[in-house]
Structures are given as structure tokens and as C-alpha cells.
Here is the input.
Amino acid sequence: MYEISRFFRVPLTEIGFVRAIVEAYEGLGQVVSNDADRGEIEIVIPESMAQEAETMIARLLGQGCVEIPRPLDWR
Here is the structure.
């Protein structure tokens, strides 16, 4: 199974909310954060769920999340 990684900048106060939304959809994705103080997250999405994830991501983008390129220092 392949996975797709998408990266976002999220207001620090909203990281927990975003994590709860993503993980509430069983199997839709997992939220990873290297450093919670930076407000950058990665959402890892199984390729089989990519279409469903697009709907969720569109909603997150409408609530202050900004998609960004993979940070250069991301692990």
C-alpha cells in the first residue's frame, strides 16, 4: 500500500483540533508533527483513501490551515 504525504501550517492552538478531525475518520489519515512549536504538520494518507481525504483537506483549508511544501528539515 502506498501513502501520500501532505504538509500544512496550522495555527498552534488548532493542532489538536486538526489531529482530532483527521483521526476521527477511521483510516483516513494520520497527523505527524516534528515540532509542535512550529505549527507544521504532515498528514499521511493511504493512497486508497486519497479521494475521501481531499474533501476533508478542503474543509481544513477553509479553517485556517495552509498547505505548504515539505519543510527542508522534515525528518
Notes: The first strand starts at residue 3 and ends at 9. The two ends are 21 Å apart (CA to CA).
